Amino acid sequence: MKLWKEAFVVGLLVLVVSCGGSGSKKLPIMGRQEFKEVNGKIDTIYHTIPNFQFVDQDSAIVNEKTFEDKIYVADFFFGTCPTICPVMKQQMLRIYDRFKDNPNFAILSHTIDPEHDTVAYLKDYSEKIGVMDNKVWHFVTGNKDEIYEMGSAAGYMVPVGEDGAAPGGFIHSGAFILVDKERRIRGYYDGTKKLEVDALMSDIPKLLAEYE
Amino acid sequence: MALLIACLLSACGGAKSENEGVQDRLNTKELKYFTNGKRLYTQYCNNCHMDNGEGLGRLIPPLAESDYLMEDLGRAAKIMKYGQKGPIAVNGTEYNQPMPANPQLTPLEILQILAYVSNTWGNEADIMTLPEVQEALKEQ
Predict the structure, then answer these.
(1) Global model pTM greater than 0.90
(2) Where in the numbering of this chain does the Cytochrome c domain appear (chain B) (predicted)?
(3) Are the C-beta atoms of residues B41 and B114 closer than 8 Å to each other?
(4) Which domains does chain B have, with CATH numbers?
(5) Of A36, A81, A123, A124, which has the fewest beta carbons less than 10 angstroms from its beta carbon?
(6) Would you list the domain boundaries of chain A?
(7) Does A20 touch chain B (CB under 8 A)?
(8) Fold classification of A49-209 (topology level)
């Protein structure tokens, strides 16, 4: 009996190890790289998210300083979206519930329809899906061009824009983008697919561990 | 240890199927509606009402064990085709998110989606007939 127990424990260990085996491997750094010579050595300059300034559901200014010493997940959505947004929010809620107590973690959801999605609308929307404050998850609105700029090649590098032919009038990516404390992009995940969000949820602790 | 094994087992397949009993309740033709309805649900409804029919918070109402759905399937047919605006009460909670119209859905497709949503996730209802759905869709 004891032997059987031991075998079971070993089996469990094997299972745990095989599930998270790449735990020590660092996540890739995405985006264009530049190489710069500094004192005779070649330095790699990685793509970083530029400075920004938006307003969240509690009328608080949200900018790059909001995410100092935090890793965060970013996405783009709009409140009246008839297609992929609700399922993205359902999946983001799983991430929120898992990591909301970690002081080094945050979420940044940009509306791409700021004319409709005002601060008051975003407050109502966020509360309705169960996010009662802005401590962890910021739903931001602001200048439309600046929001679209954040989606562009200068920012998160995902498609966002207006398109009269698209359902709801906007096109946008369903991507969840994982950003590190140096504002470098460390992963893209399809926010409409549970399995990809599972992968993101296992990558978040790996990224946090890089700073331990 | 025993608890752990029990957890593992139940996670693997112990949970009851969401469609349990549907084979006994529906005849062959109705089951065909149900199966096609599930496919159409995935295509048209799933992004908002979710694959378990639970909706999203207080934003998107549930279909699973939803009084608003089950008390009037004809009304649900209309909402699918023509959309919905304004506040509604579902299981005692108010929802006020517009639902887009789906003018491309045929009466048969609507009948199939209804067959699915009203007979899964704990819901049980008689399957409407095609003339009944057509009648419900007459008035917008």
Answers:
(1) no
(2) 32-121
(3) no
(4) 24-138 (1.10.760.10)
(5) A36
(6) 49-209
(7) no
(8) Glutaredoxin (3.40.30)
